[in-house]
Amino acid sequence: MELLKRRIINDGTEIGTEIVKVDSFLNHQLDIGLFMALGKEIYRRFGNMGINKILTIEASGIGIAAIAAIYFDLVPVVFAKKAQPSTMNEDFYGAPVKSFTKGTVSIAKVSKQYLSKDDKVLIIDDFLAHGEAAAGLANLVEQAGGTVCGIAAIVEKEFQGGSKKLRDLGYYVDSLAVITNIEDGKIYFKD
Amino acid sequence: MELLKRRIINDGTEIGTEIVKVDSFLNHQLDIGLFMALGKEIYRRFGNMGINKILTIEASGIGIAAIAAIYFDLVPVVFAKKAQPSTMNEDFYGAPVKSFTKGTVSIAKVSKQYLSKDDKVLIIDDFLAHGEAAAGLANLVEQAGGTVCGIAAIVEKEFQGGSKKLRDLGYYVDSLAVITNIEDGKIYFKD
């Protein structure tokens, strides 16, 4: 998506070999006009799959998931909470999610009331790096007996292997901007 | 707002003397059609104040803030992160936020890049109870030299004193549904 690539180039900061921060429009301050364009594009790519629920994980996935749902005929959005293993009980589905940056493991959890076998789910995540969060969310859907129709990421860092891992697990993945590598402060995109 | 009151009565759960959970449409699963009605109503109440930024706090305020921004001519949304005091540095504004339910204190923090003296800010919070989160957010705006135009809460539990506290501090507060008390499993609203 050209609009998004240009925005990442223009407003991405702290660009290292593996890092680009997009706090000014995606992760801390949210550009809602851009979010509407992203939501529309996600619908263009995933709109014919009979999706009836959008699943994301707190915190920064929530805004884009909420706006995208407008284009998906107002399907409900569920966000998984990041919790300590100690807070799990039988009312929740839970899946471990490793954070490579922090070196920690948390549990993505969703109340059993809000995922079911009838759900045809689109997973939306703002950043796809190692694919840990998306794999955890897919795991939750499957525990409920539902269907993962696809995984939409806004920004993918392809060189960290997340999309390959998710595709190897059998999931359909499509990212709006795919970064192939970052070198000498310059960001390279697929296509 | 009658639509919201009816929804709280119909779908609120775990109703105790101080508690009502609205996880099925506001805090965990998000009813985006309802969010659009809430966003429109917030605009009706706060739309003439020259607001140029919406501020909320992670996680469950983000969805409603993002949708509300559509009605406010796509003003940017900033969400404060809940952090440990140890993660603060000079790049952030920080304000302590006490959680009465958890008995803990965290820090609401916003990067100094995303709040400034030119900001005319609407604070949106999903739940207004003791008013700690909203007071912390207002504190952040003032540290930046900006103006708090108003505080919009979706569900207010008036009997916990948050709105009175915020008004005593000089802030304009308007909540879409005001619960005056909860007794014998029944919820009473203002008006």
Automatic annotation (TrEMBL), chains A, B:
<comment type="function">
    <text>Converts the preformed base xanthine, a product of nucleic acid breakdown, to xanthosine 5'-monophosphate (XMP), so it can be reused for RNA or DNA synthesis.</text>
</comment>
<dbReference type="GO" id="GO:0046110">
    <property type="term" value="P:xanthine metabolic process"/>
</dbReference>
<keyword id="KW-0812">Transmembrane</keyword>
<dbReference type="InterPro" id="IPR010079">
    <property type="entry name" value="Xanthine_PRibTrfase"/>
</dbReference>
<dbReference type="GO" id="GO:0000310">
    <property type="term" value="F:xanthine phosphoribosyltransferase activity"/>
</dbReference>
<dbReference type="GO" id="GO:0032265">
    <property type="term" value="P:XMP salvage"/>
</dbReference>
<dbReference type="GO" id="GO:0006166">
    <property type="term" value="P:purine ribonucleoside salvage"/>
</dbReference>
<keyword id="KW-0808">Transferase</keyword>
<keyword id="KW-0660">Purine salvage</keyword>
<dbReference type="GO" id="GO:0005737">
    <property type="term" value="C:cytoplasm"/>
</dbReference>
<keyword id="KW-1133">Transmembrane helix</keyword>
<protein>
    <recommendedName>
        <fullName>Xanthine phosphoribosyltransferase</fullName>
        <ecNumber>2.4.2.22</ecNumber>
    </recommendedName>
</protein>
<keyword id="KW-0328">Glycosyltransferase</keyword>
<feature type="binding site">
    <location>
        <position position="157"/>
    </location>
    <ligand>
        <name>xanthine</name>
    </ligand>
</feature>
<feature type="binding site">
    <location>
        <position position="27"/>
    </location>
    <ligand>
        <name>xanthine</name>
    </ligand>
</feature>
<comment type="pathway">
    <text>Purine metabolism; XMP biosynthesis via salvage pathway; XMP from xanthine: step 1/1.</text>
</comment>
<dbReference type="InterPro" id="IPR000836">
    <property type="entry name" value="PRTase_dom"/>
</dbReference>
<dbReference type="InterPro" id="IPR050118">
    <property type="entry name" value="Pur/Pyrimidine_PRTase"/>
</dbReference>
<comment type="subunit">
    <text>Homodimer.</text>
</comment>
<feature type="transmembrane region" description="Helical">
    <location>
        <begin position="54"/>
        <end position="79"/>
    </location>
</feature>
<comment type="similarity">
    <text>Belongs to the purine/pyrimidine phosphoribosyltransferase family. Xpt subfamily.</text>
</comment>
<keyword id="KW-0963">Cytoplasm</keyword>
<keyword id="KW-0472">Membrane</keyword>
<dbReference type="InterPro" id="IPR029057">
    <property type="entry name" value="PRTase-like"/>
</dbReference>
<dbReference type="Pfam" id="PF00156">
    <property type="entry name" value="Pribosyltran"/>
</dbReference>
<feature type="domain" description="Phosphoribosyltransferase">
    <location>
        <begin position="32"/>
        <end position="175"/>
    </location>
</feature>
<feature type="binding site">
    <location>
        <begin position="129"/>
        <end position="133"/>
    </location>
    <ligand>
        <name>5-phospho-alpha-D-ribose 1-diphosphate</name>
    </ligand>
</feature>
